[in-house]
Specification:
This protein is mainly alpha-helical. The protein is built from ten helices and no strands. The longest helix is centred in the last third of the chain and has 38 residues.
């Protein structure tokens, strides 16, 4: 949750309000600017929350108090969440496309890193998790990757995308051949 909110707040140059780095001024004109920026920061934070999360911060106006409240809640169950995410990472199985698998593993890896940097899986672990998630139809490419010098996740994903495209092409060719065979067989039976 914090990564998306942090980027939105930094993009509007109001991150300091969530961090409590901008004190509420005494001057009336400055107070109006502070109040507006604080309200924007608080609104951005609250706008990204689920109903259950929002219940923890309803009625809190100061962006830094909202942020710290949520931070405390999320950090208190951080260890359990890290363990759960690590389990998801290690047990990951590809069910859609290579791109979806790569994105999912990267998201999980980053979420673990945000919660506990020392537990963040390495790029090598992410490569192994992706390769282990593949079905038997990818054995030929996995063997090729194992003996290659590909050490970057992006390079491995690019090779897997090519293999995926080839496999889809073969699958479509087989379907067309099967349809032709079925048509030919039924014509012979009629004739």
């Amino acid at each position: 949750w914090s990564e998306l909110i942090t980027e939105a707040l930094k993009g509007r140059a109001i991150w300091q309000y969530a961090q409590g780095e901008v004190d509420e001024p005494e001057d009336k004109d400055q107070l109006q600017i502070w109040t507006q920026n604080n309200a924007i920061a608080s609104g951005i934070i609250k706008g990204t929350l689920t109903e259950s999360q929002l219940g923890h911060v309803m009625g809190i106006d100061k962006a830094s108090v909202v942020w710290n409240t949520l931070k405390t809640i999320h950090q208190s169950d951080g260890t359990a969440r890290v363990r759960s995410l690590l389990g998801d990472f290690m047990r990951y199985r590809l069910v859609t496309t290579i791109d979806d698998g790569a994105s999912t593993l990267t998201r999980i890896q980053n979420e673990i890193g945000n919660l506990k940097e020392t537990s963040k899986p390495s790029e090598d672990m992410k490569i192994e998790a992706l390769l282990a998630s593949l079905g038997p139809e990818y054995e030929f490419i996995v063997a090729g990757i194992d003996v290659s010098d590909s050490t970057k996740f992006e390079d491995v994903v690019a090779k897997l995308r090519k293999a995926e495209a080839r496999l889809k092409g073969q699958g479509q060719g087989q379907e067309q051949n099967q349809a032709r065979l079925t048509t030919t067989t039924s014509k012979k039976k009629k004739g």
